[in-house]
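Worked Example 4.2. Consider the chain below.
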Amino acid sequence: MRITSPQNPRIKEIVQLRQGRKRRQAGKFLIDGRREVFRALACGFPILAVYFAPELADEETFQWMEDFAAQHGSQIEVNEVPPALFAKIAYGDREDGVLAVARYTELTLDDVFQRLPKDRPPLIGVLEGVEKPGNIGAILRSADGAGLSALVLADPQTDLFNPNTIRASLGTIFSLPVCADSSENVVAWLKKHQFQIYAAIVDGAIHYTEADFTRPCAIVLGSEAWGLTEQFRGEGIQPIFLPMNGIADSLNVSTTAAILFYEALRQREKRVKSV
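Applying the procedure from the previous section yields the following structure tokens:
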């Protein structure tokens, strides 16, 4: 189908889905970009419709569009739009002429537990109160690269499928079990399933390299503005720190996450080689 009018109901819906409240109400979200749409599809996310602007596509993307329509056109609604209309519905300036509407797949903590690996100790990333979608997306990339088992948002300040989160994650948000819940519920869930909880705190008790990340554990990071709340302090939670040898007292949360996630990967790979 070719759509040319901005008054088309489908176009109006896409514009509304740029708002978090509308996404939650509709149970739908948007995926911008060929790579991100491909990864969502490959990871089993329910794609409802795809919008193509052929004039914006390079040769590779144009061929992908044609192959997609031929392979999925009978199950997924495929619409063609002109560049001016695509600019109205697309997010940001990285336009390659591909956009999709997908169904919200909202997991619970129990759903995440069921999806954890059984052949190795699970490693979970927890983000409490992180407010910037770009940081969450960057952390997802590190989590995917370091082989984390899942990512949990505690008391999130943005919805999981914010367009900027998806964009910053390069689509890796679709590769991991991801869910959101209250900090209280997340702490209770981690303790119930006997995860060692490591909380990244500026005045933590032990150096991050001294933590044992080879066991079933969770690495918890807080917002850059406020850090972690009291929910992630106290009995059963081990505070860890990264050394800061300059005048700054902390790193960007996504940088901290990358360091900790890859330290966990280093320890785990070292343990496998020594067995």
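The mean pLDDT is 94. The longest helix spans residues 253-274. Compare this with Example 4.1 before moving on.
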